Amino acid sequence: MHAFQSKSSTMPTFLTATRLRAELFSTLDHILDTGEAVEVKRPKGSVRIVRNPSTQRLASLKPHPGTINGNADDLANLSWEQEWKPSL
User: Fold this and answer.
1) Full-prediction pTM beyond 0.90?
2) Separation between Cα atoms, residue 40 and residue 13, nearest integer Å
3) Which of 2, 61, 62, 80 is such that its CA lies 20 to 30 A from the CA of 55?
4) 16 by DSSP, 3-state: which?
């Protein structure tokens, strides 16, 4: 059975439950950083831990074409300071 290897290697990663327990947080960080799955071997079978694609929040954004009327570059110089009247 293979042990956990460095982040730079390409591998199907296999761990025992004991090794996973000892290296839980580094294993989870490895999965999140690389997207590589980790397989945990048990006597009754194996379990895979994979990165959930929904955790990539920016990747799920949908474009909204036509939302800005006019030139989008004009928004960089937009100022509300003269219009803003805070009520205290």
Assistant:
1) no
2) 8
3) 2
4) strand
